[in-house]
């Protein structure tokens, strides 16, 4: 009985290893990175970027506000893209008055076949004075 249990567990382990090997090899054009990054240790704001899978599908930018400890009231959001051929694109995504915990989502089609993009958000107080800016992690494709 002990011998058959060993055979079963060895077989399961071999299947797990084979499945891991098959999923490791991603194509060079696969998307990676992205996600959210906290603006700083002194804020409760995270700036994010993500992408639908596939090289030409759009980037999605947004941010989360868990608190307005520095008087964050308004924003300007941009989706910046740096292409592997050296081209740079700064896309104005929109203005937003902070009234909840999640901004709208903005999208931007990738202007090149390989490169990276990130969300850049500038925060202002209710008087329109600059407080700080923050970037998401890079989204690569």
TrEMBL record:
<protein>
    <recommendedName>
        <fullName>Peptidase inhibitor family I36</fullName>
    </recommendedName>
</protein>
<keyword id="KW-0732">Signal</keyword>
<feature type="signal peptide">
    <location>
        <begin position="1"/>
        <end position="30"/>
    </location>
</feature>
């Amino acid at each position: 009985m002990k011998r058959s249990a060993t055979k079963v567990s060895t077989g399961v382990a071999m299947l797990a290893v084979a499945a891991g090997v098959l999923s490791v090899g991603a194509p060079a054009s696969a998307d990676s990175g992205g996600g959210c990054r906290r603006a700083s240790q002194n804020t409760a704001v995270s700036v994010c970027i993500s992408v639908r899978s596939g090289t030409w599908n759009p980037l999605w930018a947004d941010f989360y506000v868990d608190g307005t400890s520095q008087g964050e009231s308004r924003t300007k959001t941009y989706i910046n893209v740096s292409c592997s051929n050296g081209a740079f694109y700064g896309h104005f995504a929109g203005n937003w008055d902070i009234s909840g915990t999640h901004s709208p989502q903005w999208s931007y089609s990738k202007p090149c076949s390989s490169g990276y993009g990130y969300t850049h958000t500038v925060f202002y107080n209710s008087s329109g004075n600059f407080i700080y800016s923050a970037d998401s992690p890079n989204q690569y494709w």
